[in-house]
Amino acid sequence: MTHRPLEEPTRPVRPHPVDLAWQRTPEPGEVDPAVLGALLHRHGWQRRGGAAGRYGRWTPPGPGGSGTSLLVPESRAFPDSDDLLGEALDALTRSGTPSAREVLVGLAVPSDEVRWWRDVPAGPADAAPWTVEERLRSAARQMLLAAALATRARAGYYGARHRRAAAALLESVLVGPAAGGGRLTAFVPVGTGRPLAVRLQQALYAAREAIDYRRATGGMDAFDGAVEAGVSRELTEALIALVRGTEGARIAVEWAPAAGVPEDCVAGVEPVEFSPGDLSVLREAGARFLRDEPSVPVHVTGAVIRMRRSGPRGEGSVRLRVLAGADIPHVRVTLDEEDYRIAGHAHLVGLPVRVRGRLESRGGFRRLTGAEGVVPVQVDDAERDRLMKSLHENLDFFEEACGGEECD
């Protein structure tokens, strides 16, 4: 089996279809009038009459909206429907209303929308300190990442596990501007990110119920069951970051009108609310998840990228770039003298090694304990050449690996 080293630059690939779709306004023929109407309603536009059964007249939210209006057909049953849709799309494109951009994004690619609100005191003219918006964006990303992790596996604490796959799931997500530092919207494409949105909605409600149960009974048992819904230490930390320094925060997940409501989910529910009074329970739950997540038995295959020991003999520490066996980028292993020697020789000839042990939760699943059975792993010539190139670029560390003497 050939493995590409994780730090090697990836080969150019074709642009993701989502990337292309975000960059253009959809054509009238691609727009479902019912979807456009649903998106306008979602983003605060008001329907103010129109020919019944033929089209509706929509005006934007907020003061000054009466000067702008869109005529949106209710269906394609009439010959002028494409003309009306084209005029409506052109008006949305030219509009300076933030909600117009959000509607266009929802039309460009069917997207579930995640919304965050933080109740923070407004500054002069509703301005917000720079740090307020930074905290909102940081907390929102933490929350999306926690939901993405939960699509890979269920765990109370992930640490370094599944991070690359979870981060890759966020690459197609678009985030709109934060309104005054207190509101933010993320657009999660249905085609690539619906499992993330589903898991987030279920995890938020499970976290809310577990907090309420803790307050009512004094027990933390509900958090154990909430793990199956996607609640984790990573999610509790994201909620703490969102709520801290506010009078309260809310999160809502709204489904793409073009794709409908996913199975086991509901539409039109109220946002999930969290308050500063929840922070102590969230911290307690996070500590519980960290403490109780068990170590994991694994067989890891990895390339040796660093070796260290205090002298020319005895056990030593090895750092592996993980190629298979655990969904983490790197792991540290303490090896006895014989296994350390085998790892060093394998690296010198450009071969990865396989080792078994337990991936410890302490330290974020970055350390393998009880390691034994180190053996070199055969790879094809191309992979071996890449490993050898990595060796020649990092020869300096072998002085540390050998304790200042020639490796035997």
What oligomeric state do these chains adopt? single chain
Across the major sheet, the strand order is 5-6-4-7-8
Overall structural class, as computed from helix and strand content, comes to alpha+beta
What is the C-alpha radius of gyration, as a whole number of Å? 27 Å
| Uncertain residue segments | 1-21, 394-408
How many strand elements?
13
Question: How would you characterize this protein structure?
Answer:
This protein has 408 residues and is α+β, with helices and mostly antiparallel strands. The protein folds into three domains: 27-108, Metal Transport, Frataxin, Chain A; 111-292, no CATH class; 296-401, OB fold (Dihydrolipoamide Acetyltransferase, E2P) (Beta Barrel), CATH 2.40.50. Helices cover 39% and strands 20% of the residues. The strands form three sheets. Strands 5-6-4-7-8 form a five-stranded antiparallel β-sheet, sandwiched between helices. Strand 9 (296-308) and strand 10 (316-324) form a beta hairpin. Mean pLDDT is 84; it is low at 1-21 and 394-408.
